[in-house]
Backbone:
């Protein structure tokens, strides 16, 4: 499993503009967000009670998740009324066109200072990439497990999300192998592959420039269920993705 090449914190904006992606190690995520690493690690407990994703069209039972939406305008982060997650088939061939009503993220977590600081930092990264403006963010807590013998972090395959910035925080890996991240130029064959293994490391993607996927996970021991926990946040200018009316 190749390790990612980490981006020095001072080179984050330039790396995103130049390569279309960047990876920060956990200590730099703490510095970048202003959240002490111990507080980030304490958030990981919030992944233990995620309800099943009942919308999987491949018939699997390997994904659990919660969802919430926010408007980020500079230092101001506003939680939005709970809404369905929707993508067009152009961006998600498997689940596109479907209004998916996931259980909301715990309100106490959603309003906690560390959580809000992460969202503010992501808003700053998006504005550094696209210009200062409000951002419409969707946050997803994911647990992919090996209940079915295999778990698919991206069952839709290599894809874009139809947003401006995609953030993938690795929260935890336990008892698994696989889960390799692959990032490719959207308009060419160039790509890179690596495996996020450090809790609270972060991958940032310019969604217009690159497509991405993660390979399936399998248990290290057949008799034990393993899992991979992530926090995925997407930021989009101009408004949320909504179905045509």
Residues:
């Amino acid at each position: 499993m190749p390790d990612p090449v980490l981006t020095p914190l001072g080179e984050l904006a330039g790396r995103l503009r130049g390569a279309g992606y960047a990876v920060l190690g956990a200590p730099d995520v703490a510095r970048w967000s202003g959240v002490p690493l111990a507080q980030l690690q304490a958030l990981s407990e919030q992944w233990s009670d995620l309800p099943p994703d009942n919308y999987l069209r491949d018939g699997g039972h390997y994904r659990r998740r919660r969802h919430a939406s926010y408007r980020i305008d500079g230092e101001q982060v506003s939680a939005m009324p709970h809404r369905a997650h929707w993508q067009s088939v152009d961006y998600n061939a498997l689940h596109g066109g479907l209004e998916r009503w996931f259980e909301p993220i715990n309100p106490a977590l959603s309003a906690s200072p560390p959580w809000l600081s992460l969202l503010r930092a992501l808003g700053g990264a998006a504005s550094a990439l696209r210009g200062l403006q409000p951002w419409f963010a969707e946050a997803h807590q994911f647990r992919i497990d090996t209940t079915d013998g295999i778990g698919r972090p991206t069952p839709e395959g290599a894809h874009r999300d139809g947003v401006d910035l995609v953030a993938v925080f690795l929260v935890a890996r336990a008892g698994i192998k696989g889960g390799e991240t692959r990032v490719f130029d959207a308009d060419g064959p160039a790509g890179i592959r690596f495996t996020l293994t450090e809790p609270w490391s972060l991958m940032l993607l310019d969604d217009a420039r690159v497509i991405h996927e993660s390979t399936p996970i399998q248990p290290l021991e057949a008799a034990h269920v393993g899992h991979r926990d992530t926090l995925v946040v997407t930021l989009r200018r101009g408004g949320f993705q909504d179905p045509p009316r």
In short: The domain at 9-236 is CATH 2.60.120.620 (Jelly Rolls). The chain has one domain: 9-236. The first strand starts at residue 21 and ends at 24. Residues 124 and 132 are 8 Å apart (CA to CA).
